[in-house]
Write a sequence for this structure.
């Protein structure tokens, strides 16, 4: 949870800078889309984690095993997100330098 909190603390302010590249007339729309995406992502993440954890027996060992699976899912999601962000940033950088 500490790692997640640190990650959110770093990522969320960076997402706020997305409105800088938007024309002034569309800043409100960009902010709304950004906020909706964040809320949807958090809601889906919590729902998926709850569904996965609910498949394990309700014992101490089952809970521990469930948390181990959730850590693996979270790590996989983070890796996919980082790869996607890197690819998008590279393509955006290539378009601006061409």
């Amino acid at each position: 949870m500490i790692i997640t909190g640190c990650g959110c603390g770093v990522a969320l302010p960076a997402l706020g800078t997305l409105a800088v590249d938007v024309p002034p007339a569309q800043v409100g729309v960009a902010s709304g889309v950004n906020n909706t995406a964040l809320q949807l992502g958090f809601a889906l993440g919590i729902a998926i984690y709850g569904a996965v954890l609910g498949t394990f027996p309700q014992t101490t060992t089952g809970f521990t095993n469930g948390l181990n699976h959730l850590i693996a899912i979270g790590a996989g999601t983070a890796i996919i997100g980082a790869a996607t962000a890197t690819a998008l940033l590279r393509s955006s950088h290539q378009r601006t330098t061409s």
